[in-house]
Design goal:
Elements: E1 3-8, E2 15-20, H1 29-35, H2 49-59, H3 62-84, H4 87-104, H5 114-117
Antiparallel strand pairs: 1-2
Helix pairs in contact: 2-3, 3-4
């Protein structure tokens, strides 16, 4: 929604009212990544889960780890639900799995298949 703001006319030096639009909300890192346009520099070249995990382990890239979580949390949660049949417990298990992945990321072999490890 546009709003009225005061601005200084550079030619005459007088104040005048102008209509301005607020900037659009910033997209999340995953939206930038998945759109394949304007990827954040730190994960621009990442193509697979192994590279994303390595980027997180070596450089602490939160964007890379966020993409991994968003890509695999549904699968992890689904498996947890089938095993425990309890929604709150399945959510806790899902969070715990990704906390463990974050802690062990640096020690995993480069060829580790993330979905299989999870």
């Amino acid at each position: 929604m546009a709003e009225l703001a005061d601005a200084l006319d550079s030619k005459s030096g007088t104040r005048k009212s102008v209509w301005v639009r607020p900037p659009p909300p910033a997209p999340s890192a995953s939206q930038l990544l998945l759109s394949r346009f304007g990827w954040p520099y730190t994960v621009r070249h990442m193509l697979n889960d192994g590279e994303l995990l390595r980027e997180y382990a070596e450089r602490g890239s939160e964007e890379a780890f966020q993409v991994l979580v968003e890509s695999h949390s549904g699968m992890v949660h689904g498996v947890a639900m089938r095993v425990v049949r309890n929604e709150p417990l399945a959510e806790e298990i899902t969070q715990a799995v990704f906390v463990i992945l974050a802690r062990k990321a640096a020690g995993l072999r480069p060829k580790t298949v993330v979905a299989g490890w999870l």
